[in-house]
Amino acid sequence: MTHANPNSVLTGTHFMNGDAACCEGLLAAGARFAAGYPITPSTEVVERFAARTPKTGGLFIQMEDELAASIAIQGMVWAGEKSFTVTSGPGFSLMMEHIGYAAMTETPCVFVDVQRGGPSTGLPTLPAQGDMMQARFGSHGDYLTIALVPDSPQECFDLAVESMNLAERFRIPVMFMMDECVGHMTEKVVIPPAEQIPVYPRRRTTKKPGEYLPFAPGEDLVPEMAHAGEGHGLFVTGLTHDDRGYPLMNPAQQHKLVNRLFDKILRAADDLVMVEEEGMEDAEAVVICYGITSRVARRGIQLAREKGHKVGLMRLKCVWPFPEKLVHGLAGRMKAIVVPELNLGQVVLEVERCAAGQCRVIRLPHAGGTVHKPADIVAAIERGMA
Amino acid sequence: MARGSVAVTTERCKGCGFCVEFCPTKVLALSSAFNAKGYHAPYMEDPDKCSGCNLCGMYCPDFAIYGYRFPKETGEPAEGKQQ
Amino acid sequence: MSTTVDFPIHNPVEDILRMDRIPTIWCPGCGIGTSVNSFAYALLSTGIELKKVAIVSGIGCSGRVSGYTKMDSFHVTHGRAIPFATGLKLANPELTVVVYSGDGDLTSIGGNHLIHAARRNMDLLVVCVNNMIYAMTGGQAAATTPGAAISTTTPYGSFEPELNIAHLVDAAGASFVARWTVFHVKMLEKTMKEALSKKGFRFIEVLSPCPTLYGRRNNLADGLAAMKDYKERSKIRNGAPTHETALVQGGEIVVGKFVDRERPDYLTLMRQQLGANYHPLPPQPDENPEAGVAKEDCCSC
Fold it and tell me: What is the CATH number of domain A275-385?
């Protein structure tokens, strides 16, 4: 680990919205280049980035569509920079092919999705959490990725840094799953001094051209990286490839490569459990939530406790990979797990799978457009405790 | 007297005939022999006329033929390399 | 390799190829490899350091060119070679970035990117090998397939007029627009060399035979027949207005350098406009170049 470049960190206490904080987080994490295409409610991230970059030496380019933006950032990465793109539902759908390309070619980058109501054009200015499964399974073929979900502007900063760091550590596309509420909510954001912001550097190879195999995995299954212009004669392709990067399209190589792309993340799954727990000491039921929904859940839990129900909160900051062991263990100790989310049941499917019938799992779906009412959460808790 | 020659890597040849057709001095012809893939590679039917201009090489889509000029002193004809 | 001459014979084209990947997948009589010869000689004659050259291709037969060249090669998704190349060039302006791809890839699925890269005058050389068909997928009609030509998806002939790519990129603002066929190897080499030495968005269309999937169904039984057809039908008209260069089946093939204009490219314009407001940053303060892989030990954090 190294730390952030002071020239790109706005150290201090700010009053800013989640979109702006996300931009500052990615800048602090070392992104100097980005590409995007305007879409509500995400555009503020790149608007700020475009204003900030002349002073940080990089640039923002507004591409002709999301397909272009999501591949242009990968060009920037292979040129040696850290990069990201920002979008919302419809644009996220268009970017799917390039999330798969980044997974296959092990291109570290961050995709920020400020979720809005869907499907299709849906509710451009209103929140939802309907892209959670898309963040995991959106691109065709098998791959794993990491998805972080912030619930406040402060976390939009903190987890944006973490997203970029994880992208670099595993050489994967990381999904940063905000939502309209968090993106447009303005709160206090404290940006620490640069030397207190850990930054994961590019895993560059030290091998000489000729000795270096671009896709030969290291001990943690992640290959070292080299960039265009360094004399390695790289060959990067989305086809199934061997350690040199050359296409090698047969079942044996497919098996080897795709399993490695999975295993490099699965092996580290325990490290990637990022949860916040509240009131779990005496809890008989728990609300598992993420993103904006957790802020309503907190109020719901407070009301339920006033009524005498022993309820805790577990907020997932990292939804993918899903904390399977944790939820499985929890289900063995709880009477009920309540899962409110701004979709008609996505992450709850994982909760149900991991709970494996050990306790009740109460779904609390919502089609989006606004958040749950605390009373809905209370009612769901009571259903679970009954 | 030939001023150059061609080197043919027979096994790369796919027998398209571009080199034969566009040789400005009509040096080449397709051989009746097959290579391992079953294509007829070119050979020098009239080596004396070769100027070593490498137009055949420029046309060859499979990088299988290369025309070269002899060094100035030796005007000696030489056979193209065969593989 | 054995030879009977007493001096080394070395085909310079091999200097830019990954010889361990030759022979190519291209069919007998396909012209893509021929265009690569012209490109190789053009590139070598410019003296540009090969390690600073990157080749980006999309999907398709012509999209395989990047993988046969020794330089840094990127074989990206279908249609997206230009935006990938845009990112590569912007983040490392030292690179000479060449997009080498086919007509279906660049003009249909990637058509939007072609227009906008030309409009931005992004500093890229785009070589578009136009075989007038989707070849890798088995000979379906492309935007460039001349009306009335037979393809697997237009078995009774196409009902759509063909796209004049040169006219399109000219209208969008490209700095340099040229067209040759693979019959014109020497002219193509010269034009490529000229384009490599210029800044801005440079577009070269190269007509190439596809005997297997286009020629066979359209009375050009093999590659050689198509080459002879190019020879007969081509007319060199340098500076021709691009709206007069449409490629009609059986009609004249207008070739030459059509457009060569001076216009600041994207990065030049950006630097001009930002002027003193642009502050390139020094590199990361303590990125340890020897460490390569980051270790667990943290600095002050």
Answer: 3.40.50.920
* CB-CB contact of A226 with A249 (8 Å): no
Q: Chain A: nearest CA to C237, how far in angstroms?
A: 33
Residue B63 with chain C: CB contacts under 8 Å: 11, 13-14, 17, 22, 33, 37
Give me the interface pTM, i.e. the ipTM: 0.96
Q: What pLDDT is attached to residue C281?
A: 56
Compare CB distances from C84 to A55, A72, A247 and report the shortest one's residue: A72
All structural domains of chain A with their residue ranges? 2-199, 275-385
Report yes or no on C283 lying in a domain.
no
Q: Do A74 and C112 touch (CB under 8 A)?
A: no
Q: Please give the Cα distance from C284 to C287 (Å, whole number).
A: 6
Q: Mutate which of A9, A61, A66, A71 to test chain C, going by most C C-beta atoms within 10 A?
A: A71
Tens-place pLDDT, residues A273-288: 999 999 999 999 999 9
Nearest by CB to C293, from A5, A8, A218: name it.
Answer: A218
C113 with A64: Cβ contact below 8 A: yes
Q: Which domain holds residue B43?
A: 4-69
User: How far apart (Å, rounded) are the C-alpha atoms in residues A150 and A181?
Assistant: 11
B13 lies in a domain? yes
Q: Tell me which residue of A373, A183, A362, A378 sits closest to A296, measured CA to CA.
A: A373
Q: How many CA atoms lie within 13 A of A227 on its CB side?
A: 22
Closest chain A CA to residue C276: A54
Confidence label for C4 from pLDDT (cuts 50, 70 and 90): low
Superfamily of domain A2-199: Thiamin diphosphate (ThDP)-binding fold, Pyr/PP domains (3.40.50.970)
Cβ distance A83 to C91 less than 8 Å, yes or no, reads: yes
CB contact under 8 Å between C77 and A75, yes or no, is no
Interface test with C, best of A11, A85, A213, A236 (most C CBs within 10 A): A236
> Cβ contact (<8 Å) for C73 and A65?
no
> Cα–Cα distance between A282 and A311 in angstroms, integer?
8
Q: Is C147 exposed, middle or buried (0-12, 13-18, 19+ CB in 10 A)?
A: middle
Average of pLDDT values for C38-51?
97
Nearest to B19 by CA among B58, B45, B52: B58
β-strands C96-102, C125-130 pairing = parallel
C294 within domain boundaries = no
Q: What is the pTM of this model?
A: 0.94
